[in-house]
From TrEMBL, chain A:
Source organism: Streptomyces johnsoniae
Name of the protein described by the UniProt record: Potassium transporter TrkA
Domain of life: Bacteria
Residue span, Potassium/proton antiporter subunit KhtT-like N-terminal domain: 5-71
């Protein structure tokens, strides 16, 4: 994995990716469950509790990913 | 052909599903709901009766049990557990030891008998993977520092369950003499070893036998094979549960694992629900009065054992109060395994109170454990500092973290030195360079002939080195034997 992305196994659940945004108060973590569901954890404050957690299906995750990666074209 | 009671079965399963759906809204687990419907509409309880003879469902229930354990075996993350490190095993051993021992002592204190005490030890000691995993997802704790540890513990518990069943089933088979018992135990473990050998060397043959490219055939072949192996294990005096679990482990070593996991999952869910409903049907609600006090004691004992285990684990990993409370209160859920053990006990004709006892115990904990896990912070607040390691300072501030406890010793993170001075003095070469983040010493890595960096760490007691290779940002902690990652969100 690239720099600033940390991967950790969650036995029985899947894998967790922590993405370091280089800022003290912002961080994103993604949990890839083995069933295909992704949990998007967003931390926008210093608190240990996530600001928002969004559960994405594989399809939804692909959509978000495509937009973020700027590979999405409007038909 | 005998007329099957489809109306009874259908309405019971539908009601079970509806109740579980309702309970999900309040964050309550589904397994106890299935059981509750069985109890409420069973022949032992006054009121409407959906299924008159629970025995009629015994085949479907047995299928549920077999698929439950098969799926557990298939999805068993063996590599992740083996790679989890020694500390995880110590933590899991503490957890299992504390809980099973306290369960055994309670069982003996109740005075229902030796075999009964063994069943209670397992039922009280082994938590429900399904309930714990769901709780972690729902409470949004998947990224917490203690979560990998919690998951590791419950996975090792599953493994422990296999051995516990192997030990228990010969004991329950009511052997006449100690010699006979020893023979049964040896047989049971021999069968386990045989299946382990199949898992190790014969997985390819099994995959060739059932590995059809069509989903339909794969599902049919898998269920056939699993039920056959489970039945054969029962024939040789090992419980069907172990047979199913082991064949699951065999399949998990093959490349068809993911497809089997996906195909069997809905089957497992349906038939496991039937299994739990059927267990409920055998319970007479009037018997619960007599076991109310022992169950209350058992719940207190379990709580105490869990919280202690949480503190021990937190100490081992250098976690803070919050993590300690989370570990103790999350792993509290009891469900499928306790009910499997109860079914075994009922089947073996043990003390009749054991069924209602475990049913009530599981029901109460099902409500208690999500409630307590949600409010674990109150427990964390009253936990004194001195029960945990003083090294937790970092984790207290940042729940998301590594398990390294020496992060307060990171003082130097940059250097202009680009040679290993000790190697240069010797006139030798090195492979890569490591920086001691405590004092700024630069030495060569462990692939270099002299390993000056680890020598420095050993002599000085400085725990953490950082790679100086361009493009690498990892750190390694020697005492904790773990990769340290820079604390996300911490000031650099």
């Amino acid at each position: 994995m690239g720099q600033g992305v940390h991967v950790q196994d969650l036995p029985g659940v899947g894998k967790r990716y922590d993405i370091d945004l280089g800022r003290a108060d912002q961080r994103i973590s993604v949990v890839m469950r083995s069933g295909g569901v992704r949990d998007l954890y967003v931390f926008a404050s210093d608190s240990a509790d996530p600001t928002a957690v969004i559960e994405l299906s594989e399809e939804q995750a692909r959509k978000v990913g495509a937009v973020l990666a700027a590979t999405f074209f409007e038909a | 052909m005998e007329h099957a009671d489809l109306v009874g079965l259908g309405s019971a399963v539908l009601l079970a599903g509806l109740l579980a759906r309702l309970a999900r809204r309040f964050g309550l687990p589904s397994v106890p709901c299935y059981m509750l419907v069985g109890i409420a509409f069973g022949p032992g309880t006054p009121g409407p009766v959906l299924v008159d003879h629970p025995g009629e469902l015994s085949l479907l229930a047995a299928l549920g049990l077999v698929l439950l354990l098969f799926h557990l075996g298939v999805e068993f993350p063996l590599d992740q557990v083996v790679g989890g490190g020694r500390r995880l095993f110590v933590a899991a051993a503490c957890y299992i030891g504390l809980n099973v021992t306290s369960g055994l002592l309670l069982g003996l204190a109740l005075g229902w008998g030796g075999s009964e005490a063994l069943v209670l030890a397992g039922a009280l000691g082994i938590s429900s993977s399904a309930i714990v995993t769901k709780l972690l997802i729902e409470l949004h704790r998947l990224t917490n520092a203690e979560t990998p540890v919690i998951l590791g513990i419950i996975v090792i518990e599953d493994l422990f369950l296999a051995f516990y069943l192997a030990l228990l089933s010969p004991v329950l088979s009511a052997a006449e003499s100690p010699a006979e018992l020893a023979e049964d135990v040896a047989m049971s473990f021999g069968f386990l070893v045989l299946l382990f050998a199949v898992a190790r060397y014969g997985a390819r043959a099994v995959a060739a036998l059932i590995g059809s490219r069509e989903d339909e055939l794969l599902a049919v072949l898998t269920v056939g094979l699993v039920v056959l192996v489970a039945g054969l294990s029962q024939e040789v005096g090992v419980s069907d549960a172990i047979g199913a679990l082991m064949i699951g482990l065999v399949v998990s070593r093959t490349e068809i694992r993911e497809r089997v996991e996906r195909l069997v999952l809905p089957l497992r869910d349906v038939f496991a629900a039937v299994f739990f409903v059927t267990f409920g049907l055998t319970i007479d609600i009037a018997d619960m009065d007599a076991v109310a006090v022992p169950v209350a004691v058992a719940i207190c004992v379990t709580l105490l054992a869990n919280v202690s285990a949480g503190i021990v684990t937190a100490r081992l990993f250098g976690f803070n109060q919050r993590a300690a409370a989370n570990i103790g209160l999350t792993v509290l859920g009891r469900g499928e395994f306790s009910l499997i053990l109860a079914t075994l006990a009922v089947g073996a004709g043990l003390d009749e109170r054991i069924g209602p006892f475990i049913a009530l115990y599981v029901l109460l904990l099902a409500v208690l454990s999500p409630l307590l896990a949600t409010h674990s912070r109150y427990l964390a607040r009253i936990m004194p500092d001195r029960v945990l390691r003083p090294g937790w300072r970092y984790v207290r501030e940042e729940t998301i973290s590594t398990s390294c406890t020496h992060l307060d010793q990171i003082r130097v993170t940059r250097t202009d030195v680009d040679v290993c001075a000790a190697c240069e003095a010797l006139g030798d070469d090195w492979v890569e360079l490591r920086l001691c983040v405590t004092c700024g010493h630069v030495g060569c890595c462990d692939d270099s002939p002299h390993r000056h960096a680890s020598t420095h760490a050993r002599e000085s007691g400085h725990p953490i080195v950082q790679s100086l290779e361009p493009g690498e940002d990892w750190r390694w902690c020697f005492p904790d034997e773990t990769l340290v990652r820079a604390p996300l969100g911490a000031q650099r």
